[in-house]
Amino acid sequence: MKIINLLKGSKPGVSCELFPPKQGSQLANALEIVDTIAEQKPSFISVTYGAGGSNAGEAVAVAAEVHKCGIPSMAHFTCINADDQGIEAMLKQLQAKGIDNVLALRGDLPEGTSLEHAEYQHASDLAKKIKSFGDFCVGGACYPEGHPESAGLNDDIEKLKIKVDSGVEFLVTQMFFDNDVMYNYMYRLLAHGITVPVVPGVMPVTNAKQIQHICKLSGTKLPLRFRAIVEKYGDDPEAMKQAGINYATAQVLDLLANGFMDVHIYTMNRPEIIGGILQNLSCIVK
Ligand code: FAD
């Protein structure tokens, strides 16, 4: 099922992201995680792609398992260092497994490299390629607080418009912890003529160390009320887990109440996290 049809429908949903194992020996465990999460009935599941495609086989296998469980499956795919031949081979594999949703990404620049000689320089180039290759529904990433390499939020949104005009049908955001950031971003997208559906990304923070690392990498800001939670409960793993699930639930509830059709949860492959959120929202997301 194409994700754009879900987003244009009338049923609100909560989707989630999984990552594939780094080694084939861990694949059986990853497939079990898919089965457990699929039982919770998220609206769709996306599967990340390792930098440089080192575990592409595992990523396709996990995305295929999602599809087998009857949940719409979306494969992430990065184009940095990729060429036409490699991209087409990957797309053929996805088609063979019945996966018709792809999140077209550039990927992070490996340290000390530049885009200068890359065949595919931007996610927009990949989106165009995928659309011309076959009948895929193509999503793209966006950054409510700006992409770290961009000259500023307006510049980033101008580049995002190129991506949307290249065939991206919906957007999934980088995580954020303050919903006002998201609402402000939506006004800016509209002002730039970007009207495709946007799926906000929410990360339930269940571990204080994890959050410091992630925020440093992505530039995501932590609101004071969230910092207070991490300071108070960060040293108690069970309390932090519950607080993280509840903070994320409140974010999702507010986003759905304000008109978003779907919210994407970064689950870190832990079924109890998406399960906790869906249970909290059981009368809202049915
Ligand atoms: P782009 O859209 O190409 O943007 C990258 C930078 O280039 C931005 O600063 C943008 O403003 C600028 N830009 C874009 N288009 C143009 C243009 N035409 N001309 C000039 N400048 C331009 N990484 C992984 O390795 N695997 C994953 O599975 C993965 N999943 C992700 C999922 C989500 C929802 C998000 C938000 C990110 C994910 N990432 C993943 C991280 C992502 O690969 C990095 O953030 C990467 O640095 C940028 O990828 P992008 O697709 O946003 O790139």
From TrEMBL:
The keyword Flavoprotein applies. GO terms for molecular function: FAD binding; methylenetetrahydrofolate reductase (NADH) activity. Coiled coil: none annotated. It comes from Succiniclasticum ruminis DSM 9236. It comes from the Bacteria. It catalyses: (6S)-5-methyl-5,6,7,8-tetrahydrofolate + NAD(+) = (6R)-5,10-methylene-5,6,7,8-tetrahydrofolate + NADH + H(+). Keywords: FAD, Flavoprotein, Oxidoreductase. Its cofactor is FAD. One of its GO terms (cellular component) is cytosol. This is Methylenetetrahydrofolate reductase.
